[in-house]
């Protein structure tokens, strides 16, 4: 596991956007799809802004990109302002030339009975395209990646999960209070994240510094799912100075 520390999150986001853009272009030259695993939340906003800028100002095309988002609240309507569908459209998809049919986000409208089959198919689609080329991650205050909360196993599959209290508290501002905040979500499992050819976990700010230390320097444990990335052969933590401040 590598860590790279940038002066600030803007510089860090630009560097990550450049790595993604370079891979998209290299794949274009070979007539191949580029498979991106994408995250939501506050952390990747600067990354998406830079990717939009690269499209608008430098002609970067997303025509050969296929994306798979990590997670979606359940239940959730796609046109809700709290949905990750809405988030991705607002911050990225509506501003670049990615094909709508190439954008995948777990479906928050399924019946409970339909979820496990849907999750198997979500993973099968990723596999049929040859797996994720670059997986973008943020990290929860409890060390979650996607919505793989503490206790998630290394071989966990894509599934419906119960959100931790701390995760719901963090989201409650968006939902107008804890009681209105979803209790469950569909998340890509740890196994598919670990199978990605390249993993980039981004974290900004002092508030993430303790969990970053645990994830990078602590023992590998299901209590901190991000610590599994210590066992990935091509994972990098991209940090600002504040998030890195507790590392030895
Ligand atoms: C979002 C996701 C979550 C977030 C994490 C950090 O798709 O999978 O794991 O990355 O909760 O959220 P922020 O970036 O808002 O601090």
Automatic annotation (TrEMBL):
The chain holds residues 19 to 266 of 642 of the full protein. It comes from Neotamlana sedimentorum. The lineage of its organism: Bacteria, Pseudomonadati, Bacteroidota, Flavobacteriia, Flavobacteriales. Residues 8-236 form the Glucosamine/galactosamine-6-phosphate isomerase domain. This is Glucosamine-6-phosphate deaminase. It comes from the Bacteria.
